[in-house]
Design a protein that fits this description.
The complex is a heterodimer of chains A (about 110) and B (about 110). Chain A is mostly beta strands. Chain A is about 0% helix and about 55% strand. In chain B, a hairpin with a 5-residue loop joins strand 9 and strand 10. Classes of the chains: A mainly beta (about 110), B mainly beta (about 110).
């Protein structure tokens, strides 16, 4: 079992729709959860982080965390073609220092 | 530009050669990380510095890899006797707390 799992996609949504990206993790002691956006050929860009159960909203993005189910998600409202990218879920585990464990990413395609 | 910078951005080398990459973190960040990313995968942790101390190193990292952060500012990552399997994007990130910010990466191609 991988430590952080994501559906590789592609997830295709029409412009203006809500895109829902999901991630599960195996380390029950994980404390911090991050979403990064990565355009093709570029480096990851931090877009959201969440530490507590529940929802956290930032503009068109909402991160949701359920520690009991070991599940974290990212919702993108009013999706735009410029949101087309790979979205990486990352988890800071309970062991070691501050290293992040990444999923393989979900590719999102927003079509006009 | 006050973000993380990396140099070079691209490196092509022949198998068996040594290569060195540099990372300059965001100036006030005392934590620095190296990751490696291959196509279709997420970044994979290599090593972590807090100030000048190397506090964690991936067990997957072979002895051919070494990293330094001599004065707690910039860091270098050296790969000795490169192999074709070392071809990847090498990413540096820095942080002051939990949130890590990535540099543009160095893309290494080993022929």
């Amino acid at each position: 079992q991988k430590e952080v799992e994501q559906n590789s996609g592609p997830l295709s949504v029409p412009e203006g729709a809500i895109a829902s990206l999901n991630c599960t993790y195996s380390d029950r002691g994980s404390q911090s959860f991050f979403w990064y956006r990565q355009y093709s050929g570029k480096s990851p860009e931090l877009i959201m982080f969440i530490y507590s159960n529940g929802d956290k909203e930032d503009g068109r993005f909402t991160a949701q965390l359920n520690k009991a189910s070991q599940y974290v998600s990212l919702l993108i409202r009013d999706s735009q073609p410029s949101d087309s990218a790979t979205y990486l879920c990352a988890v800071r585990g309970s062991g070691g220092y501050n290293k992040l464990i990444f999923g393989a990413g979900t590719r999102l395609a927003v079509h006009p | 530009d006050t973000g993380v910078s990396q140099d070079p951005r691209h490196k092509i080398t022949k198998r068996g050669q040594n290569v060195t990459f540099r990372c300059d973190p965001i100036s006030e960040h005392n934590r620095l990380y190296w990751y490696r990313q291959t196509l279709g995968q997420g970044p994979e942790f290599l090593t972590y510095f807090q100030n000048e101390a190397q506090l964690e190193k991936s067990r997957l990292l072979s002895d051919r890899f070494s990293a330094e952060r001599p004065k707690g500012s910039f860091s270098t990552l050296e790969i000795q006797r490169t192999e074709q399997g070392d071809s990847a994007m090498y990413l540096c990130a820095s942080s002051l707390s939990d949130e890590q910010f990535f540099g543009p990466g160095t893309r290494l191609t080993v022929l």
